[in-house]
Amino acid sequence: MIRVENLTKSYPLQGFARYTVFRGISFELPSRTHVGIVGRNGAGKSTLMRLLGGMELPDTGRVTSDGLISPPLGLSSGFAQKIPGRDNARFICRINGDDNAAARERVEFIREFSELGEFFERPVETYSSGMKARLAFSISMSFRYDYYLIDELTAVGDEKFREKAKATFAEKKGQASIIMVSHNLPALKRDCEVGLYMSPRGPLYFDDIGEAIAAYKKDQNTR
């Protein structure tokens, strides 16, 4: 289970002002199930994913879990831009506890899976957004997590790579929980079982993804 307690997140604006994405939200997500997250643009879906994956810290509150949570697949803002993809991959392996031999083996998997070619040896700042997404996805796929965070899987690389990513994603679904953000509502309905709607009134949990999508659509139609 992932438990979110009294979570607040804001970002600085010009001067002393701050933009608050959400304030004091709390909810629980069950383990061993697949969760679809819906909401309008700006509702805080990607921000929530970064907080769940530990890529950012909240202003207040906390996220606790009974298992390991991946960084969000599809988001690639956590890389050191000045160093090569290989060194980013190696660093992530080491902070996750790999010794030298295990890190070498995992980095080789990441190199092959990402299909970055010579760019794997170049600074990440030279990558396109699709290449960064491929590197992020490949790194996450090299580890075994209890919860995989998927932020718009369709953003990961070109069509050929997306097909490979989808096949790997399907394999992971059989081994772990999936928490997925997407504007592709049919894909959410196909791949997820329960839903979290980031509504203007706060997060609403539904035991059926179809009900979450219906609530989201109803609010969209009444705006």
TrEMBL record:
ABC transporter domain sequence ranges: 2-222
Membrane-traversing stretches: none
GO molecular function terms attached to this record: ABC-type transporter activity; ATP binding; ATP hydrolysis activity
InterPro entries for the chain: AAA+_ATPase (IPR003593), ABC_transporter-like_ATP-bd (IPR003439), ABC_transporter-like_CS (IPR017871), ABC_transpr_TagH-like (IPR015860), Bact_Polysacc_Export_ATP-bd (IPR050683), P-loop_NTPase (IPR027417)
Swiss-Prot/TrEMBL keywords: ATP-binding, Nucleotide-binding, Transport
Record Gene3D superfamilies: P-loop containing nucleotide triphosphate hydrolases
Annotated Gene Ontology cellular component terms: membrane
Sequence similarity: Belongs to the ABC transporter superfamily.
Protein name according to UniProt: Capsular polysaccharide ABC transporter, ATP-binding protein
